[in-house]
Write a structure and sequence with these properties.
This protein is an all-alpha fold. It is 65% helix and 0% strand. The protein has helices at 2-5, 9-18, 25-37, 39-43, 53-61, 70-83, 88-95, 105-113, 119-133. It is globular.
Length: 134
């Protein structure tokens, strides 16, 4: 409880990376609640790029995720993708969690025409953006 009162995005993000092996249910639940409520701030932390794929999938899948718009979710996925090489498969899985129909038409149009997205993430984004425009 004391830890929750003093939680910051940086501390939460560090715990997610460094305490993954602890498997302390109470801490895990507290971190998840914090991230769901402060997602945009947690994405800005240095450690965000090291978050485990399974953690991000669970968070992005949640209806409790608080974001201003779905563009923030997509930006977070792309930030995670660029943080380390070799994340095409993981990024493709995360992109499935983005609610493309909630993206603005301008965002969908821009995604559809992006040429810098290659490999599996590029294919997934192109298809999901096209479906979102329909």
């Amino acid at each position: 409880e004391v830890l929750g009162e003093h939680m910051t995005p940086e501390l939460c993000s560090s715990f997610i990376v460094d305490c993954e092996v602890l498997l302390v249910d109470e801490l895990d639940e507290m971190l998840e609640r914090y991230v769901l409520e402060h997602f945009a701030d947690c994405v800005k932390t240095e450690q965000f790029g090291s978050w485990p794929l399974h953690r991000l999938i669970g968070l992005l899948r949640s209806d409790e995720l608080v974001v201003e718009n779905e563009e923030q979710v997509l930006a977070a996925v792309m930030h995670w993708h660029r943080s380390e090489p070799g994340r095409d498969d993981g990024t493709a899985a995360l992109l499935q969690m983005v609610r493309f129909p909630l993206l603005s038409a301008a965002s969908l149009q821009a995604l559809r025409s992006r040429e810098d997205l290659t490999g599996l993430p590029g294919v997934v984004i192109s298809r999901l953006a096209a479906a979102g425009l329909k």
